[in-house]
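F.,

This is the one I mentioned.
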């Protein structure tokens, strides 16, 4: 403008928004945390849209690619969709919330209709095999298809990871033998994409539960490289290229999910995702932060001698938790201002206060265990050859930190020579005389205040004359003064010995004392003194004889002693 003179020019600027219809929804899990604890932030970028798989160039009533085939009383059909087909339609990772089936002409009502979906590594369905481990997305309902598009909104969305192939499974049964079939639109595929299992007179629940390659009753499998035309409602938003999480003051994470450890209550987070080169800001999510309880106060560490319950203690409110590590680790004890179990070596504990929601930092507690001086028990002889002999029990102490009161005990005590207990002393042996043969464990126990230690030694007491008797006699028992008299001493120990192994058997005369080829028999057998001595017999009375018999003969024998 110059006085009455005016002129102008213009330029056009176009502002694009490629993210129209795209939403970014942020969540925190959990929404309430204890101060400093980990929290997970997630953002889901979505743009719901419906895409259609196939042109529906053909129509048919036939299984397996017609989920409304009524040739049997019920049907379970499964349809494979490759990830490459979904991405080609523009679907990206996110929730699949519904599907649409296209019908040319109606059939009947199909009862107990259920839709399931699952990820799979299969690139082609296996002939005559119904796959399991699928997720139910549409609960049981009765469907009466109408001509045209039949949309089914899922009760539970299916979260597709964006890379896996999926199986869509439908199941129904009218629990009869035959039904009218609807006519559906379908398309051929380059791979086996459909398989079905059909059966008469089956409940809808049993039809849904069936998987595998076998069936019972009237049934049939079908498979084909054809698939019904499907429309799928899911996520078509482009995948974000960057994520920036902010607490309003600074960037706290650049990943999805993001991980934070808030300490201020409340802490609010938002995520800015870059989608199609442009920023997309999420909603704000608030995390409630609960303050931690006050850490326990150390009352005192402890020092002890040998094994025992430590006296180290803490004080604090709420429930005291005793751990084996400063972070993480195992809860050794819940409750108590002292550790209640016995320890035998120095240990360090870490104690927190827990108020039912949050847990404080941990306080270190040290319980020191000093090893007591060792005691060593010994015996002048660990084997007593004859009952009535003695042995000396001695004790030695390693170190001079303790002034022990020493006590000897025995197990078993009866016959050991120490019926209850006996005082011990360093440098002064204890002489014991056992009164019964056997094996005895002698224990020396040392006590110095709260410090106790012990050692043991085993002594074996033999009695080689067990069972032997000694009998003295005089003959005659009455004599005149100065007449001779004979004194005799007999040492005896009754026992049974055997001669021979009895390796052979016979009923022949001369061998068997019970041979009865004649009306009677007298048999004699000689045993050398060397044989009797080799068996352990010594001079004395023979009081009995035993014969080993393998089979019986006549029982009417009369014995003639000679």
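My design for it:
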């Amino acid at each position: 403008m110059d006085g009455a003179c005016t002129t102008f020019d213009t330029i056009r600027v176009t502002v694009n928004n490629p993210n129209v219809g795209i939403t970014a929804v942020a969540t925190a899990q959990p929404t309430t945390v204890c101060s400093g604890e980990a929290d997970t932030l997630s953002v889901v970028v979505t743009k719901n849209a419906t895409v259609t798989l196939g042109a529906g160039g053909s129509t048919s009533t036939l299984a397996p690619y017609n989920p409304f085939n009524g040739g049997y009383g019920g049907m379970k059909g499964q349809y494979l969709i490759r990830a490459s087909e979904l991405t080609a339609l523009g679907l990206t990772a996110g929730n699949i919330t519904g599907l649409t089936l296209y019908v040319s002409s109606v059939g009947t009502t199909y009862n107990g209709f259920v839709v399931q979906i699952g990820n799979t590594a299969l690139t082609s369905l296996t002939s005559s095999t119904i796959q399991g481990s699928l997720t139910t997305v549409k609960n049981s309902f009765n469907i009466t298809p109408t001509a045209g598009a039949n949309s089914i909104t899922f009760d539970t969305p299916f979260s597709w990871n964006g890379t896996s192939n999926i199986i869509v499974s439908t199941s129904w049964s009218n629990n009869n033998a035959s039904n009218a079939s609807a006519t559906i639109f379908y398309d051929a595929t380059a791979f086996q994409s459909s398989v079905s299992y059909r059966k008469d007179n089956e409940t809808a629940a049993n039809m849904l539960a069936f998987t595998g390659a076998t069936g019972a009753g009237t049934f049939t499998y079908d498979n084909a490289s054809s698939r019904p035309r499907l429309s799928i409602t899911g996520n078509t938003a482009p995948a974000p290229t960057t994520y920036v999480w902010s607490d309003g003051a600074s960037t706290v994470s650049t990943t999805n999910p993001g991980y934070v450890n808030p300490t201020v209550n409340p802490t609010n987070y938002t995520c800015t995702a870059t989608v199609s080169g442009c920023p997309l800001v999420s909603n704000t999510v608030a995390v409630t932060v609960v303050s931690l309880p006050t850490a326990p106060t150390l009352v005192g560490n402890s020092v002890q001698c040998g094994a025992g319950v430590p006296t180290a203690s803490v004080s604090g409110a709420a429930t005291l938790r005793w751990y084996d590590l400063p972070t993480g680790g195992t809860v050794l004890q819940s409750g108590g201002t002292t550790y209640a179990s016995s320890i035998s070596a120095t240990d360090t504990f870490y104690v927190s206060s827990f108020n039912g929601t949050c847990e404080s930092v941990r306080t270190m507690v040290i319980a020191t265990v000093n090893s007591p001086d060792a005691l060593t028990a010994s015996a002048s002889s660990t084997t007593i050859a004859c009952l009535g002999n003695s042995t000396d029990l001695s004790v030695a102490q390693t170190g001079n930190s303790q002034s022990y009161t020493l006590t000897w005990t025995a197990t078993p005590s009866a016959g050991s020579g120490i019926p209850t207990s006996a005082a011990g002393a360093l440098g002064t042996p204890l002489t014991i005389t056992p009164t019964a043969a056997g094996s005895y464990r002698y224990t020396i126990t040392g006590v110095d205040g709260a410090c106790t230690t012990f050692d043991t030694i085993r002594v074996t007491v033999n009695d080689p004359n067990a069972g032997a008797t000694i009998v003295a006699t005089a003959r005659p028992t009455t004599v005149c003064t100065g007449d001779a008299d004979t004194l005799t001493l007999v040492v005896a120990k009754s026992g049974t010995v055997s001669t021979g192994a009895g390796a052979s058997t016979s009923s022949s005369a001369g061998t068997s004392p019970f041979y009865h080829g004649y009306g009677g028999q007298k048999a004699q057998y000689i045993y050398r003194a060397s044989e009797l001595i080799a068996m352990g017999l010594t001079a004395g009375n023979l009081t009995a004889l035993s014969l080993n018999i393998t089979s019986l003969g006549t029982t009417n024998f009369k014995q003639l002693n000679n």
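The first helix runs from residue 83 to 88.

Talk soon.
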